[in-house]
Design goal:
84 residues; mainly alpha; 4 helices; 77% helix; 0% strand
Length: 84
């Protein structure tokens, strides 16, 4: 197994553990996972092909749909509420 696949599997495990945390404890690890994901997706695509990168991107968007919708709304100039 290549290093990028091991790193991607560890990323998935870290994201699963982060999702089990209470909401107030999810922000710091969640943002770091959100920043690390594009690097892993590009690395995965460079090592194993674009199709695997597309699958990883679909999984990433599925897992982080709420934060991505929040950042998209902020980019459009809206001010959405943050859950407590």
């Amino acid at each position: 197994m290549s290093g990028v696949v091991v790193a991607a599997c560890l990323w998935v495990l870290a994201a699963s553990v982060t999702a089990m945390l209470p909401m107030r404890h999810q922000y710091v690890p969640g943002i770091s996972l959100l920043v690390a994901a594009p690097v892993l997706i590009v690395w995965l695509g460079a090592a194993h092909g674009w199709w695997l990168s597309a699958v990883a991107l679909a999984a990433f968007v599925s897992m982080f749909r709420r934060p991505l919708m929040y950042f998209y709304a902020r980019a459009r100039g809206e001010h959405p509420d943050i859950p407590r």
